[in-house]
Specification:
The complex is a heterodimer of chains A (287) and B (221). Chain A is an alpha/beta fold. Chain A has a single domain, classed as Dihydropteroate synthase-like (TIM Barrel). Chain A contains 10 helices and 10 strands. Chain B folds into 2 domains: 84 residues, Methyltransferase, Methionine Synthase (B12-binding Domains), Chain A, domain 1 (Orthogonal Bundle); 128 residues, Rossmann fold, CATH 3.40.50. Chain B is built from 9 helices and 5 strands. Chain B starts with a helix and ends with a helix. Classes of the chains: A alpha/beta (287), B alpha/beta (221). The interface between A and B is medium-sized, with 22 and 21 residues. Chain B: Belongs to the methylamine corrinoid protein family. Chain B: One of its GO terms (biological process) is homocysteine metabolic process. Chain B: It holds the Pfam family B12-binding. Chain B: Keywords: Cobalt, Metal-binding.
């Protein structure tokens, strides 16, 4: 099962036999006060810096979220997407829970985007899946419903099944569905990551779907978050995770993902791994 | 064990979140004739205040705060009925919930812990709390404060919806409304007409006490 995303100059393929797809999480104003103030004032210049840092860090796709309270989110998201596409070839993950913003973003996006996200709630799917169909995009779906985040992997699998049926009923190709098996912090529940890993395994076994998740969640509220994120991703990859919305600027984390690609056989003969080494060597000859 | 040793033990074990030890020492204190209010006000509340202070400084992390809260809750289950018998006035009653459409609960739970730690009675409505559920809880428990939490910019507008429903139900003047959550600001809290906002759990407790004192003063004036 291959989920193919594209821009005018680039194609990125997600799959269980493919290198892991790193979706850079940085272009998101949540918790960034100065960025929010700038965006409110119509100043998008921070985005240039965030794009550059994530491209340099090794992102494959860039998530773009413009969720600033008390602003015109659809207009802001459309402007941000146009700006990002003017500076990089990386495909975009259009991130909003406001469907008008998703539509505004999809309307200006050039290529095949990934939409982030829909849940298994009927009313959400009824609004968002027609948009996905109309623009021929791929979609991230979270297996939670009206009652909240399911505490068990089996329930997440059941809601995934419901989402699969809905996708089929809208005649969206199943390969354009990417499930987010829900990563929660291990700081609030010692079993949280184990449940996510089990959900990844079950969803892969039953549906063979691609999966992505918000990887940085697992370390929320804990010290040395980079080390935890760098440890989590390879474990999740070995269970069947094929992508993550994650920190693409920290070498420790990106290296750990690329190492796992090689170790798990999706970077055959280490072409990417050795290429990264050569690039780093060229950039810093004395090291 | 002297009363002093029990108080010190309770404080130390609550600080490190050792729930079995806190429960054991609570029972022991009671059996040796200590008052439930002594255990609460001289050991548990000071311990939770210290936990909150350390968290605020960045010396304590989320799991440490959660287990300290659990340790205190275990003791409170034993103490609450006894405190009710003594007729001691509670600091206040707080109904709390994450708004409809939002499943985030860590921040809310941290605030609950700090509120309980400060002696509030907390009624937690959980996540995905519909306006109807907030209204029903305010009618049933007649809290001093209702707290609403939202983690997403897209669920924050539920504050306004809930406020509207409170007004429609004739309850707006009867309860203090506090809002909070990662994307929420004082400006936003003002825009939806909330009475209070706090950026973190410790500040929320101070704000809650302040708002209740203001309200009680106004009623007595």
């Amino acid at each position: 099962m291959h989920t193919v995303l594209s821009s005018p100059g680039k194609t990125v393929t997600m799959g269980h036999d493919q290198p892991f797809v790193i979706i850079g999480e940085r272009i998101n104003p949540t918790g960034r006060k100065i960025f929010q103030e700038k965006l409110r004032a119509g100043d998008l210049s921070t985005i240039n810096i965030d794009v550059e840092a994530q491209v340099a860090g090794g992102a494959d796709v860039l998530d773009v979220n413009m969720g600033v309270p008390l602003t015109d989110e659809p207009a802001l998201l459309a402007s941000a997407i146009k700006l990002v596409q003017s500076i990089t070839d990386l495909p975009i993950c259009i991130d909003s829970s406001v469907h008008e913003a998703l539509e505004a973003g999809l309307a200006v996006y050039q290529g095949k985007a990934l939409v982030n996200s829909v849940t298994g709630e009927d009313d959400r799917m009824e609004i968002i899946l027609p948009l996905v169909k109309k623009y021929g995009a791929a979609i991230i779906a979270l297996p939670n419903d009206e009652t909240g985040i399911p505490a068990t992997a089996k329930e997440r699998l059941d809601i995934t099944e419901k989402i699969v049926r809905a996708i089929e009923s809208y005649k969206i190709p199943l390969e354009d569905l990417v499930i987010d098996p829900l990563a929660m912090t291990v700081g609030a529940d010692p079993e949280a990551v184990k449940i996510t890993l089990e959900a990844i395994h079950l969803i892969k076994e039953k549906f063979g779907l691609n999966m992505t998740l918000g990887a940085s969640n697992v370390s929320f509220g804990l010290p040395s978050r980079h080390a935890l994120n760098a440890a989590f991703l390879p474990i999740a990859m070995s269970h069947g995770l094929t992508s993550a919305v994650m920190d693409a600027r920290t070498p420790e984390i990106v290296n750990s993902v690329r190492a796992a690609d090689l170790l798990l056989g999706t970077d055959a003969w280490g072409g990417n791994w050795i290429g990264r080494f050569r690039a780093q060597q060229a950039a810093n000859p004395s090291a | 064990m002297s009363a002093e040793e029990i108080i010190k033990g309770l404080y130390d074990e609550t600080l490190v979140g050792n729930a079995p030890a806190v429960l054991e020492l609570t029972k022991r204190g009671l059996s040796e004739g200590m008052g439930p209010d002594t255990i609460l006000f001289e050991a548990l509340i000071p311990a939770l205040e210290e936990v909150g202070a350390r968290f605020e400084r960045g010396d304590f992390f989320v799991p440490e705060m959660l287990i300290a809260g659990k340790a205190m809750s275990g003791a409170l289950d034993v103490l609450r009925p006894l405190l009710a018998e003594t007729g001691a006035e509670t600091i206040g009653t707080f109904v709390m919930g994450t708004v409809k459409g939002d499943v985030h609960d860590i921040g809310k739970n941290l605030v609950n812990i700090m509120l309980e730690g400060a002696g509030f009675e907390v009624i937690d409505l959980g996540v995905q709390t519909s306006p109807e559920k907030f209204i029903a809880a305010v009618e049933e428990h007649k809290p001093d404060i209702v707290g609403m939490s939202a983690f997403l910019t897209t669920t924050m507008p539920m504050f306004k919806v809930n406020m509207h429903e409170l007004t429609k139900a004739g309850l707006r003047d009867k309860v203090i409304v506090m809002v909070g959550g990662a994307p929420v600001t004082q400006e936003y809290a003002d825009a939806v007409g909330a009475d209070g906002y706090a950026a973190d759990a410790s500040t929320a407790v101070r704000k809650a006490k302040e708002l209740i004192a203001l309200k009680r003063a106004a009623q007595n004036a």
